[in-house]
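Case study 2.
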Amino acid sequence: MSDEIVSKKPSKPQSSRKGKKAWRKNIDIEDIEKNLQEKRDEEIIKGKDSGDLNDDFIIDDQPSILASSKAPKKLKSKEILTNKSKIAALNHSKHQPAKDSHKIQGVKKTDLLRLIKLNGGKFKSESKLMNRLDQDGLVKSKAKDLWDDEEEDEEEKIPKYIKSTAEVTKATVVPKTLKTESIKITTNELTSKSVHAGKSYNPSLESWKELINQEYDAEYRQELARQQIAEHRKRIQELMVTLEDTIIDGSDDDEDEEEAEAVADKEESEKDYSLSINKPNKIKIKTKTKRNREAKHKERVKLQEEIKELKKKMKDLSNLDDILQKQIEKDQEEPSQKKRKRRDKLFKYSPVETPLEVKLSDELSGNLKNLKPEGNLFYDQMLNLQSSGKIESRVPVAKKRKYGKKVTEKWSYKDFK
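Prediction:
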């Protein structure tokens, strides 16, 4: 089919059957229809003709393109948490709409009371005073000065026995403890709420060195104290051993040897006939020699103490003038208030020790990506409460058996031999 549409040749108009003088004639309107069709096609393609539009002058003061209304952005967390389920969530009493307190099952309370009264009934929430007023008019009551502002409300007279046996009584006196400050056991960064500059992720060299030296001194002091305690315990152990081994009297040696031999013989004889695997419970009875030794030791200690006191008295007598002068000076001075001794623990145990929060030179970095966080919020909170004296320190106690286990050999198997 070719692009050009070949128009049909116009057919010869049919001659009218009527006469020339007839008022109706066959008129050819094909050109008019063609023109109208062309206009319709042009209107479909191009739109309305500019001639048909309003020719009035109009100022266009608005943009032709409307601004696209963008939807507000939602957070990803809220998008995840949104309930996308088609099933509705369970109703909860908290989220339900508040009930109207003035209605009972959809009926107003006033209407309900009126209906009950009409039927001669009585409602539990009905005021007795209002009923009395409706029935008798004014009620006899105590006269009160309505214009007296200073008049105080009279307290209800409650018998003493009811007050004494009441479950809850209102406190009349403020406790003294509310006015006193909490006892600060130790002072640290948590109680003072100040952090050392050396603990920063990128500290200055001076502050970092100062913190290192400070922590080193604290650790050095603790280590010295630990070593001194260990040496002191060792010394006490040595003294206890030497005290047991000291021979006070020569005659006691022979008695000890005889007793030792007797005990050894007894043990050997018991070994052969012992029926239990466990060691026998020995009742340690003090022998005569041991008692004599202890008595002599007590006498010697007593003599040493008496000699020490005598020496001190002699020294005081020689410096009597100096002592009297010091006493006079002390009396003349104003008595200074005794400072309260600071406690380092609230109960049986001291607060937990703070861990070292010092970074070494290789751990320091100027980049936050390589930063290793220090400390623990839960640990810091517990330490703060213990240091400020609000809670007492505790230590974990392991469960132990009250009595040790014993191995016994049952003889019931011999019954089947």
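Strands lie at 103-104, 107-108.
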